[in-house]
Amino acid sequence: MVELRKRREAPLDALQPPQKKSSSSTKAKTEAVSTKAAPTSANGADKAKKVTVGQFIDLEGFGGVVETQDGKTTNLKMLVDESKNGVVLFTYPKASTPGCTTQACLFRDEYTPLTATGYSIFGLSSDSPKSNTTFKTKQNLPYTLLCDPSATLITAIGMRKAPKGIVRGVFVVSKAGKVEAVEPGGPAATVEAVRGLVKGAGISSGENAGKVVEPEEVQKDDGGDEGETQDAPKEDTDGNQAEVAAEVADTAEKLDVRDVTDV
Q1: HEC profile for 57-77?
Q2: How far apart are CA 229 and CA 236, in angstroms?
Q3: pLDDT, tens digit, for every residue of 16-66?
Q4: For labelling alongside 205, which of 3, 11, 48, 154 has CA 20 to 30 A away?
Q5: Nearest to 187 by CA among 103, 91, 69
Q6: Pairing of strands 73-74, 165-166
């Protein structure tokens, strides 16, 4: 009788398909993707990069497209091209709120002296055209308000506050594209920043606009008045001395005459 032997079963490890080894190149690619630079904004500028004073910017496409309160589309390059010397953009968080109203009215009250050197002033916020129209009409603002709901221009000039806020501040760019001011600040500080640029150009603002002060001449006039006041007592003293001398001479003459008569 033939004995049948059982076949030995193959180990489980041998029946399973071999596992694929993780590729080091695949891992490297994954790490490379995760370490890529931050995405750029719609105008091609790095969101994390801020403009600085003295920097020349390419106005073509800078900040994307915005609207005026009237619903007309425009961009920074168009605004600069239409200006005489450059553009002032003051940013405000929300139209018709107390702080923003104060800021807008300060620029309204200083509008004439601040634009004396050729700057064109614009308010910039993420408000809708309707909100900005109401704001402009109610406060009788003489300048255009720009609407930037997607905050592309606000971000480009460094006035975006994460995640969706807006920093109050002011941005000034010259006709040649040179950044002359980029400064966050309160309502009065933003006006003062522009006033400083205007004064640097030789124009005074406020009540003294158009007046030329010449300190040297004023000082000279004051000195002259003081000199005349000091010289007056000296002239009076000389006159008194002359009168006394004349009286002495008259007295002496009378005495001489009396002596002759007595003889």
Answers
A1: CCCCCCCCCEEECCCCEECHH
A2: 12
A3: 555 655 555 544 444 443 334 344 444 333 444 789 999 999 999 999 999
A4: 154
A5: 103
A6: unpaired
pLDDT of residue 50: 83
DSSP character at residue 207? G
Three-state SS at 123: strand
Question: Does residue 100 have an active-site annotation?
Answer: yes
Mean pLDDT taken over the chain: 75
**Look-up of token digits 């790490």:** 31
Residues 178, 75, 43: CA angle, nearest 5 degrees? 80
Catalytic residue among 100, 154, 156, 173: 100
For residue 76, give the nearest of 95, 54, 57 by alpha carbon: 57
Burial 128-152, CB ≥16 within 10 A → b, else e: ebebbbebbeeeebebbbbbbeebb
pTM of the full structure: 0.62
pLDDT per residue as tens digits for the range 66-106: 999 999 999 999 999 999 999 999 999 999 999 999 999 99
